[in-house]
Automatic annotation (TrEMBL):
Name of protein: Uncharacterized protein
Domain of life where this protein originates: Eukaryota
Organism: Penicillium thymicola
Length: 192
């Protein structure tokens, strides 16, 4: 998935990523006439948009800001006439994304002391979100950006309402398993 970079012409130095959600036709209906494709039209609210609105209302300081979004429908020449289209922009934040989804996690390149510091900062921030009824949507290092110069751990994508405790436990499991793996990793490294 591509994430184009955009900027506000009035505030040019402030850069943001942009994501576009566009309804596409059901497989094998792509070449049907627009009227037929328009029957597939539906609405969709992206999880990021829901998170943006919540983050803005609750004023989470460790989540990136969403400088803008637009929710609309496709015109009559669209892939799915009257189907959904949503544009989202979220600020680029400084720091190191702790997992790049390619298998070589930058988190593990940090020193043991810094990894422990990241965990402690995460453990400080998690209760604040949980008190407001929110937690990580999908707990993963790929959702975290560590800015060591300011000791800021940005949480990307979705602090969602915790109607049940499943995601809280997943977050804590991730933290505990990371700690256990870190200790095991250090011990095996020391043996060589």
């Amino acid at each position: 998935m591509a994430k184009p970079i955009c900027c506000d012409p009035k505030k040019a130095p402030r850069k943001a990523f942009m994501r576009v959600y566009l309804q596409v036709p059901i497989k094998n209906t792509e070449i049907q006439d627009p009227k037929t494709r328009s029957r597939q039209a539906t609405t969709y609210t992206s999880p990021e948009l829901t998170a943006d609105q919540m983050v803005t209302r609750k004023d989470f300081s460790n989540a990136p800001k969403f400088p803008g979004y637009k929710v609309s429908t496709q015109d009559k020449l669209g892939l799915v006439p009257n189907g959904f289209v949503t544009w989202l922009a979220w600020e680029m934040v400084p720091g190191l994304r702790l997992n790049n989804k390619l298998g070589n996690d930058p988190y593990w390149t940090l020193s043991a002391v810094e990894r422990e510091h990241v965990r402690l900062v995460f453990m400080e921030g998690l209760p604040q979100a949980l008190e407001k009824g929110y937690g990580p949507y999908t707990p993963s290092l790929s959702r975290l950006v560590w800015h060591s110069q300011t000791d800021t751990l940005y949480v990307f994508y979705m602090l969602c309402f915790m109607s049940n405790r499943t995601n809280i436990f997943r977050s804590l499991q991730l933290l505990i398993m990371t700690k256990v793996f870190d200790v095991t990793y250090r011990r095996s490294s020391e043996m060589h």
